[in-house]
């Protein structure tokens, strides 16, 4: 029997070390904090699942979770169709395609804190174009004092910032479709709607799974942009889960409850992504069975 060469494990050893220091060790530290009452650096008391029970009874957490779910669903329902539409309208070849790709990707190059600052200025009625325009049209717009305006401003800001990511992913998927499909559709006299429904959309299914998961995870962890724009206000209108966690850990320095909540936060994201991924995979499988049936 030929011996197996185990030297290949040395090639992935640096990756394992990096993952251990960047993910596993911090996670174990959080788990350790979540079951202790840290009275002082030298004094700690084991409390078991007490912090988890306390966090689950927190009404502010329930409101932040509901606010976060609504925001993430709104992001998906708006950014995915807009990204597909933008990708379909972009030129496929030539110098126009190169310029369009650069212009579309510009917002993705802006740091998150700068995005919040841009929209903070943009929405002001005294110096911002958006605020002044809405005030000029007689619309009472004030994202610092009105909860609805603040929530909508954060949503529009996220759409402006991240829809290009969905568009670029869909654009890459569209460019990977062989020309033979379009030629066959042209011979059959298929309309643009039929081409999109029966050729482009099925071929984009894999790309859309990636886009949905990326945007869902990122929107569920949003922090910097609304923190810079509104600081979580007015009131708690734009206080999402990540800001609530930061307030617990940094503002109130409740390390035990914050650690317990961060683990619950992690499990919520993992569970929702698992459900979303399996649902999209089942929809894709059913569509393929209908197509071949």
**CATH homologous superfamily caption:** MetI-like
CATH class: Mainly Alpha
Q: Which ranges are low-confidence, i.e. pLDDT below 50, for 5 or more consecutive residues?
A: none
Q: What is the helix tally?
A: 13
> Which structural category fits the helices and strands?
mainly alpha
How many β strands by DSSP?
A: 2
CATH topology: MetI-like fold
Strand content: under 5%
Helix content: over 70%
Characterization of the model:
The chain contains 13 helices and 2 strands; from the N terminus they run αββαααααααααααα. 23% of the residues are buried. The chain has 293 residues and is mostly helical. The protein is 74% helix and 3% strand. The chain has a two-stranded antiparallel ribbon with strand order 1-2. Helix 10 runs antiparallel to helix 13 (255-292). The model has no long low-confidence stretch (mean pLDDT 85). It has one domain: MetI-like fold (Orthogonal Bundle).
Summarize the structure.
The chain is mainly alpha-helical and 293 residues long. Helix content is 74%, strand content 3%. A hairpin with a 2-residue loop joins strand 1 (36-40) and strand 2.
List descriptors:
two-stranded antiparallel ribbon; mainly alpha; 13 helices; 74% helix; globular; 293 residues
How would the blueprint of this fold be written?
Layout: H1 9-34, E1 36-40, E2 43-46, H2 50-56, H3 59-89, H4 94-105, H5 112-122, H6 129-136, H7 147-175, H8 179-188, H9 192-203, H10 205-220, H11 224-229, H12 241-251, H13 255-292
Antiparallel strand pairs: 1-2
Helix pairs in contact: 1-13, 2-13, 3-7, 3-10, 7-10, 10-13, 12-13
């Amino acid at each position: 029997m030929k011996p197996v060469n185990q030297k290949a494990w040395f090639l992935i050893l640096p990756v394992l070390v990096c993952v251990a220091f960047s993910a596993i060790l911090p996670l174990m530290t959080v788990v350790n904090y979540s079951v202790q009452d840290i009275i002082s650096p030298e004094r700690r008391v084991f409390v078991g699942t007490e912090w988890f029970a306390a966090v689950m009874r927190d009404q502010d957490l329930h409101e932040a979770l509901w606010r976060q779910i609504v925001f993430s669903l709104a992001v998906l329902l708006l950014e995915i169709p807009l990204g597909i539409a933008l990708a379909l309208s972009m030129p496929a070849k030539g110098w126009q395609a190169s310029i369009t790709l650069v212009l579309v990707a510009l917002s993705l190059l802006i740091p998150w804190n700068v995005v919040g600052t841009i929209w903070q200025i943009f929405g002001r009625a005294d110096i911002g174009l958006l605020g002044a325009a809405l005030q000029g049209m007689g619309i009472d717009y004030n994202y610092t004092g009105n909860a609805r305006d603040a929530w909508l401003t954060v949503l529009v800001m996220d759409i402006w910032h991240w829809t290009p990511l969905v568009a670029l992913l869909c654009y890459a998927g569209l460019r990977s479709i062989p020309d033979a499909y379009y030629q066959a559709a042209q011979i059959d006299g298929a309309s643009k709607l039929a081409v999109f429904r029966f050729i482009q959309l099925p071929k984009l299914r894999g790309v859309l799974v990636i886009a949905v998961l990326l945007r869902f995870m990122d929107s569920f962890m949003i922090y910097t942009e609304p923190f810079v724009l509104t600081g979580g206000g007015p009131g708690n209108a734009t206080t999402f889960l990540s800001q609530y966690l930061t307030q617990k850990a940094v503002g109130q320095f409740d390390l035990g409850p914050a650690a317990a909540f961060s683990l619950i936060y992690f499990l919520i994201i993992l569970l929702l992504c698992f459900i979303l991924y399996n649902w999209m995979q089942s929809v894709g499988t059913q569509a393929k069975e209908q197509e071949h049936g």
